[in-house]
Amino acid sequence: MEWESVIGLEVHTQLLTKSKAFSGASTKYGAAPNTQACAVDIALPGVLPVFNKEAARMAVKFGLAIGAAINRRSVFARKNYFYPDLPKGYQISQYELPIVAKGRVTIDIDGQEKVVGITRAHLEEDAGKSLHEDFHGMSGIDLNRAGTPLLEIVSEPDLRSAKEAVAYLKKLHQLVVYLGICDGNMQEGSFRCDANVSVRRKGETKFGTRAEIKNVNSFRFVEKAIEYEIERQVELLEAGGKVVQETRLYDSDKNETRSMRGKEEAMDYRYFPDPDLPPLVIDEAFVRDVEKTMPELPDAKRARFIKDYGLSPYDASVLTASREMAQYYEETATASGQPKLAANWIASELSGYLNRENKDITQSPVTARMMTGLLKRIADNTISGKIAKDVLDAMWSGEGDADTVIAKQGLRQITDTGAIEKVVDEVIAKNPKQLEQYRAGKEALFGYFVGQVMKATGGKANPAQVNELLKKKLAG
Ligand code: ADP
Ligand code: MG
User: Fold this and answer.
1) Same structural domain for residues 273 and 330?
2) Which among 142, 247, 266, 466 could bridge 33 via Cys, Cβ 3.0 to 4.6 Å?
3) Residue after which a domain boundary falls, among 409, 436, 461
4) 194 and 109, same structural domain?
5) Which atom of ligand 1 is nearest to the CA of 10?
6) Pocket flag, ligand 1, residue 156 (CB < 6 Å)
7) Considering the domain boundaries, does residue 29 fall inside one?
8) Does the structure show a pLDDT above 80 at 371?
9) CA 430 – CA 475 distance, rounded (Å)
10) Which residues of 48-75 are buried (b: 16+ CB within 10 A; e: fewer)?
11) How confident is the model at residue 416 (pLDDT cuts 50, 70, 90)?
């Protein structure tokens, strides 16, 4: 039996505002428990929420980036439920009228473009955290996170595999970080996702019953959780069973999803407009204002790199992965006047070092200026590409810029024809047998002679000149 999976994601992004969505308390991560929870956040009687305009600015920025309409009037509602980390007994969220309407995000699947619909994005507040460690037989409650503004981004059920879901999630992550509205830190929970998964027989037009996997916080776990869930549902259906609509939890240690609770319906939450908050009204001027702060977006930047610098689509993707990486590349490409060379050296060599040591470009010990220096020496033939790798290694280890390393280690390429000729003569004199065989027709020995000359010069002889001289001399 052929099965098709259907996936829709709900992504919670923590907005990078300094203070909370409805209070003046700080949103900074990592403070001692409950030191950043004010009267509003802990729901003392009589307090009133005041909306943080900065959160609206960020939501509008996102809406513009995905080509969505911005609803000029959106409404905050109360979503009622009980949980110890929610002292008000309700979460303020947008329900019927979200701030951001339908939009779209384009993902790349094996070189093929696919458009993923965004149903909506709405503002809401985060809850606090229950702490289960260090409290023997009890739980602790930390309300520092309570009231932190979130933008929940809901996708259409357009995704058809775990791989597509991850590609979409990565694209969204890149986008919110580019926009500067979220720090994207998944370990700290700034970017987390619920995955809705169902399966159906190929050719079937109706969707199957879905299960929702809650709060997965790494790209790898999202992929594994969805893959596991697809397999579970297919096995269940093939055995004649039925998928029940429910909320499940992913256990990364066991790599499985487990039932948490039955799926609650919207009516269970008794949504109603929050009487303490007026509707959020956004005028044209506000939107135009936000528009002026829009950076160049990843897709546009990538297309520009391909066009202006002649980069391959792959290199352009690597070099626009983050704004910082793109800036590093452009600075190097421009200053060295070698855009192609710069792309090769940054997208493969330097990225190799960064990946090995799990660093991002802002932590690279080789600055854009140092990389420029290296490329200039390759371009003007001071060093060969092979020696340049040694120079990069030395720069990475903190031995100074390219010129310093080249001078200190005597790596300057030998381009003096006389000097190379001398070595070539010596090598030929030392290998009479090989010379005889070569002249008798064993042409493969040419490489042997090249190798001997390079060895004798410590790899510093200009390879083109060595080739030319050897050809002439070996011919006799
Ligand atoms: P809620 O989970 O709060 O009830 P929705 O009903 O709007 O919200 O759905 C949330 C997510 O579930 C969306 O991302 C949507 O694309 C996805 N979804 C809806 N139906 C299915 C389905 N049958 N299979 C997979 N995903 C689905
Ligand atoms: Mg949901």
Assistant:
1) no
2) 142
3) 409
4) yes
5) 14
6) yes
7) yes
8) yes
9) 16
10) ebebbebbbbbbbbbbbbbebebbeebb
11) confident
